[in-house]
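Hello forum,

I keep getting stuck at the same step: I have a sequence, I want structure tokens, and every attempt I make locally crashes halfway through. Rather than fight my setup again tonight, could one of you with a working pipeline run this one for me? It's a single chain of 634 residues.
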Amino acid sequence: DSPSSMQAKAGEYEWVGGETVIARAYDTPVPGFRTPTTAMMRLWSAEPIEELDFQMFCQGDIQGAMRARNEAQALSGVLYPSESSEPGRRLRLRQQFFFVSASMQDVVAQFARSQPAGPACDWTLFPRKVAIQLNDTHPTIAIPELLRLLLDERGLGWDEAWAITCRTFAFTNHTVLPEALERWSVPLLEELLPRHMQLIFEINHRFLELVAQAWPNDPERLARMSIIEESEPKAVRMAALAIVGSHTVNGVAQLHSRLVRTRLFPDFAALWPEMFQNKTNGITPRRWLLGANPTLAGLLTRWLGTEAWATDLRLLRRLEEHTGDPELQHEWRRAKRANKLKLVSHVGHAIGLQLDPDALFDMQCKRIHEYKRQLLNVLGIIHRYVAIRASSPAERAALVPRVCVLAGKAAPGYVMAKHVVALALAVADKVNSDPAVQGLLTVAFLPNYNVSAAEVIVPASDISQHISTAGMEASGTGNMKFALNGSLIIGTLDGANVEIREDIGAENFFLFGYETEDIPRLRKERAEGKFVPDPRFVETVDYIKSGVFGESFEELLGSLEGNEGFGRGDYFCVAADFAAYIEAQKEVDAAYLDQDKWTRMSIMSTAGSGFFSSDRTIDQYAKEIWDIKPVHVE
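Reply #2:
Ran it on my machine without issues. Output:
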């Protein structure tokens, strides 16, 4: 972590790093499904040049003797440190550069070795042999790193090196959230990566000359499009660098890709409209159906007469012919109950809670974030809890028993997300210990959510919640996993929900909430003090404030109050959508009472999920971005 420097050498630049580590490659084979081909995933581990400074050790400086090893281990030992502190930000940048530089040096060296023996290497072939997809802004430092390798170590001129770089990279944006569009301070980059900062300045200078030619006398546009943000201190906009250094930019759902063009990067889309594409995300049916749900997978194979659906998910459409068949419906319900029993066992072992497999299983399992609105779900559970307690014996007899399962992790430094988890746990404790709602409402927050847990949770779901604030979810893939496994969705018109609803049928989707175009107006009205919340929302919030759940959760509820300001003003429109959400949940209850209808809807959910295969997604990337063709293997 020592300061880096640059030295002039024969008219060229030589970057002298302040810290040198070994990047040790670990290759993991990734076999294909019933094919003779195997891909290789290369991972990197940082190791010190010397494990121990023996001289310092002999002098009694034990910590100093181990410093190089400890600093190297920090690079790859635990990833994604919190950026709430300067040391965290510094380590995160060092980690990003370590992985990027190891990969770029490896790729460049492999290409050079593949060329015919001789003094000259034809670097113009590099983009035909190498395609690099930037997965959001985190690996964007790869652009100046590849440029540096071509300029400083391979001796190419700027124009040739930059053309090769731009033809090699493509950029996938995964979010419209500002915190995910990285900005690195110029002073930090100048200290740790001075040559890269120099290259970024030059890239920006040449790019802004191009912008000025396209829009003369437009300093505001120049400021908006500049890679360098004129803040204090100055910062590098990594998303702008990713666009300028790539040949293609894509979003991950139709709605998201439209917002990328019209809201996130409108100036860049105006300059290079042909660069922007959509590639809707997908999931692998081998893991999320064939592996995670063998009971349903076997059923599908019997009714479709083939297991070919595992590699051609479009074949699921043929289920539509049988949705009304009583035999299929019976087998479908039996498969669902078998999966619910597996989850009952899992939850019993995990948290000691007994679930009723005949209840409606309601799931929201995903990363905890305010825009994903787990808070809206918890408020809805509280409203249901209060309503059950106030209901008459006759009303109770008509209620649909419900098991509400929440799971997910919050980022270490995300305080508000942790408050949501705390409230969910407090509500679960209260509800599950109240005999007045026993048998009608159970709440489970499952710890340590991961893929293995999801493989048990997803197949057991009757209804899953994908209820983000409209316009804020790029795509989501949890919605696809649940839909593929026959779980119905209650959700907003956001991310891939839009396309899922189109493919499975609007009548099989429980839609609620304001749409993307409404959100700016709602926030404006809130800021002007014009918003009046639904009385049921006010009653639910006041119920929490009464302390019935052990504390008043003032900071969390404060985010829903006031008209504007950081952490206030209900930026994610929970109150605005609350009434529609409650009404949609009533529709869910009513539909579940008609089990034949519910089963038909569930079958249609699976039948309409064929588009959302990662096979289709990767095929589109290959053909439309990477320009690669399949090779037939005997």
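The chain has a mean pLDDT of 94. If your local run keeps crashing, start a new thread with the error log.
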